[in-house]
Specification:
The structure is a single chain. It contains eight helices and six strands, in the order ααβαααβββαβαβα. The protein is an alpha+beta fold and 224 residues long. It has a single domain, classed as NADH Oxidase (3-Layer(aba) Sandwich). The relative contact order is 0.20. The structure holds 3-iodo-tyrosine.
């Protein structure tokens, strides 16, 4: 057992009167409920500074033992995007033709997805999200990370929400398997790619599937 005392600093609390708290919660719900996964992107450039701030928001996510076990690879280079598209489409062709069981293909039918992923080249940025399986300490020793999938999942959620809040569209794309991303992007073996977040503006006239969200009663129970 460690008997080291934690070093502390004062909390900067954020608190609002109840009325304001409610209107903030309502406004936020309205805003995030407008987020949709977009598959039809414009090639219009996006300011890098906006992406940087959204990444810093993602980096503020809670993580196991504060290890912050994530790496975000921001890809804007057209030849890298092209390589990623080729790698992803090769895996996706296998997925749609062979790997996916019928029930999975049926579940995806309403979304109209297939193995063709032009948005991987059209969108100005692909943010490839890596989960750090372990860190590196002094002299290259392994430092254990904790709750890695949970931590990276939370950070990814913050990132998606921050990008949406800034007025950008995203798509969480998960070609499987994703190992090819380590090779293309030169990331070490101790980093596991978890998804490609496609970022940009929607194409003019973009349409999205007509889907609904579960009600509060379906997603939550109150035991008061
Ligand atoms: N990775 C494939 C298949 C896919 C899987 C799920 I679960 C989705 O919600 C959407 C697609 C693809 O990107 O097409």
């Amino acid at each position: 057992m460690s008997n080291r005392k934690p070093v502390t600093v004062p909390l900067s609390p954020i608190r609002f009167p109840e009325q304001e708290m409610l209107s903030r919660a309502v406004d936020f719900q309205r805003e995030v409920s407008l987020r949709r996964s977009v598959r039809d992107f414009s090639n219009e450039a996006v300011p890098r500074e906006v992406i940087e701030h959204c990444l810093l928001s993602a980096g503020s996510a809670p993580s196991g033992a504060n290890r912050q076990p994530w790496h975000f690879c921001v890809v804007g280079d057209p030849s890298l995007k092209h390589e990623i598209r080729l790698g992803a489409e090769a895996e996706e062709r296998e997925f749609y033709r062979r790997r996916a069981p019928d029930d999975w293909l049926e579940a995806l039918a309403p979304l109209g997805t297939d193995a063709s992923k032009p948005f991987l080249e059209t969108a100005p940025f692909l943010i490839v999200i890596f989960a750090e399986k372990y860190g590196l300490g002094q002299g290259g020793s392994r430092v254990k990370n904790y709750y890695v999938p949970e931590s990276v999942g939370i950070a990814t959620g913050v990132l998606i929400t921050a990008l949406h809040h800034a007025g950008l569209a995203t798509l969480t794309h998960t070609p499987s398997p994703m190992k090819f991303l380590n090779r293309i992007l030169g990331r070490p073996e101790r980093e596991k790619p978890t998804m490609i977040l496609v970022v940009g503006y929607p194409a003019a006239g973009a349409r999205v599937p007509d889907i609904s969200r579960k009600s509060l009663e379906e997603i939550a129970s109150f035991l008061e």
